[in-house]
Specification:
Elements (H helix, E strand, L loop, with lengths): L3 H6 L24 H4 L16 H25 L1 H13 L13
The structure holds zinc ion.
The site of zinc ion (ZN) has 8 residues, from helix 2.
Length: 105
């Protein structure tokens, strides 16, 4: 049987091109930045919570789906307490796809 850490190592292989999606919102809230859409330079830059291109928006939705699937699969395999730990890690990590050490307390 796989350990939790091995499980995550096997599933962190995706490379993303764009910025991570904004936290604490669902994929239905993701949108393209109005400033950029109007043809201007967004003063928030990489801190902006909106996507700066259609590709970025598409990737954010993919990332959201990907994360949801990972969480659902983990919940099935390891139960709810593991999922809660994973969600905590995701919420506090700058790079959620690299979360791989759930055993440290
Ligand atoms: Zn913006």
């Amino acid at each position: 049987m796989q350990t939790q850490t091995e499980y995550l190592h096997c599933h962190v292989g995706r490379i993303w091109k764009h910025r991570p999606p904004p936290r604490g919102v669902g994929s239905d809230v993701y949108a393209i930045c109005g400033t950029v859409q109007a043809g201007c330079i967004c003063s928030f830059g990489s801190q902006c919570v909106d996507a700066h291109s259609a590709e970025e928006l598409k990737e954010w939705k993919e990332r959201f789906e990907y994360r949801q699937k990972k969480i659902q699969r983990a919940a099935k395999l390891y139960g709810k307490s593991f999922t809660d730990q994973l969600l905590d890690k995701l919420a506090s990590s700058n790079n959620p796809e690299k979360v791989n050490n759930l055993n440290s307390k």
